[in-house]
Amino acid sequence: MSINAKSTITTTIARILGNILVFILPNKAHQLSENRITLIHKNKNNLNIVERLMRYALVQKLEKIENHDTIAEKNREFWTNNNAIELFKETEETFKTDFLPHCSFIFEILKKELSNQSEQFDTLVEIGTGNGDVLNYLSAEFPQINKFVGIDLSPDQIELNNIKFKSNKKLEFVALDAYDWVKENGQSNTIFVSSRGVLEYFLEQRLQDFLNEINQLGKTFFVAIEPNDVNHDFDTQPETQLYGNEPSFSHNYPHLFKNAGFTLWHFSQKPWFNGGNTQTFVGAKN
């Protein structure tokens, strides 16, 4: 029997068992599926075998959403409420298990790029800072930068971050839409960062407008670490595509950055989450 055949049989059995468990344990099923995005991103390590099977069956049954405005609205609602805080808690260990071993390399390249600049970059802004761990890490990696701003849609998470990192005087956390923050506070000689799933929640036109706005600030750098659909070919498919069960947007990041007037100093991709998605790394400057 081939590997593909074994995989098909395994997933079929998992789906059948999961559906049976959902039927006989309706209260548990409701608890697991109370929020769409939480269900999708729920940390498997925090679930027992029964819950894993139920989660698998529930994810397979999620209603397909095609309308981009509806998707953006639902995702925004999620990231502004308490469900986002719970997800940040569940995925907290990914800073050590994913970011440090698989993503931090691009900041070593950024250091080399900055060393070739005659101007001083005095501010670093993380869009979608979440629990603040990445921003705190970057403040130690770039000691020459005086100000680190973490922006997030969740006021409650920002409050938690201000308590957690109160001893690091270089950090500032703000509960605001990133586009609004840039319009009100953006300035030249700033480095912008998004880490592992932030820009994927922007509508394509809003993301293009956002990058255009940043480009107009003056001298800026941007590091984007964003997931993409593994089947999204940037060379032949410049337009944004839907991907995943959330769903979210697989943007053609090189295309959008270049449209906004940036040049790329880095581009690479790696398999992510067991090959189901691709992690895209973009370094851009103007």
Automatic annotation (TrEMBL):
According to the entry, every stretch annotated as the Methyltransferase domain falls at 125-217
Please, which domain of life does this record's source organism belong to?
Bacteria
Glycosyltransferase recorded as keyword = no
CDD domains, per database record: AdoMet_MTases
Which keywords does UniProt give here? Methyltransferase, Transferase
Q: Which residues form a coiled coil?
A: none
Q: Does the keyword Methyltransferase apply?
A: yes
Question: Which GO molecular function annotations are given, in alphabetical order?
Answer: methyltransferase activity
Which InterPro entries did the record assign? Methyltransf_25, SAM-dependent_MTases_sf
Q: What is this protein called?
A: Class I SAM-dependent methyltransferase
Source species, please?
Answer: Psychroserpens luteus
Q: What is the lineage of its organism?
A: Bacteria, Pseudomonadati, Bacteroidota, Flavobacteriia, Flavobacteriales
